[in-house]
Design brief:
With 273 residues, the protein is α/β, with parallel strands linked by helices. It contains 11 helices and 10 strands.
Length: 273
Amino acid sequence: MEKTKEFNLKNNNKKVILTYGTFDVFHHGHERLLKRIKEQCDILIVGVASDDYNHRKNKQALQSEEERFKVINSLPYVDKVIIEDGLEQWGNDFKKYNADCIMMGSDHMGVLDYLEEEQDVVVKYLSRTKGISTSDLKEDLKGKNVVLTYGTFDLFHQGHENILRRAKQLGEVLVVGVSSDEFNAFKGKKAQEAYWKRMENVKNSPYVDVVIAERDWDQKRSDIQKYSANIFVMGGDWEGKFDDLEDVVEVKYFDRTPGVSSTMLREKINENN
């Protein structure tokens, strides 16, 4: 498991808030909730549900515990990430981290009253973002034409926007894999922007429905099955390199937008520096 961020628990002047969730297929609703919580505290600690806990709840996440943990741990407004193995640990976490409150989405309202009554835990609620949830996204994948693509998406530019727009035109749901910093390092590639920023830029595109982490070369075949993808799209500079996937998905390559690329933008930045 990736190492989480650390902070000084002895600083009693800091306001600490805990929150918990599965955070499967991280989306705008998750992002908005976490940012709103962070606005109310100095230290935000997020518990990510373990695969075992999800199994005990009869809940199936599309992404693994490690994938979900890494996404949350990459966010600049999250100070520490822990693994959640059950509701019974919430009271212990509240005391361990000297938290001011546990803050959850309003869909949990009333369910957690026993924590306040039995363990003196302070629980507060925030309204969820209407019109988006992981359940909604999973439903969107059922019976729909799903398009899948990947990239680093460094210094998000018009070329990226063009390829995402053209990809979305091929189907109803566009799933985009953003290369992690670790995977870029493995490829010998250095992005100008951190993973969380590149992921955020892609999520903000009006053509993108789901953003996932690209961790290695081999995940593409399993992602095609996981997200029921019908079409796999890459830029023309990759032409022929993913033809081996044609036994499970239709593979297409798009020409790049001439005159613009992340490499060109990075070179300009370096020249100016």
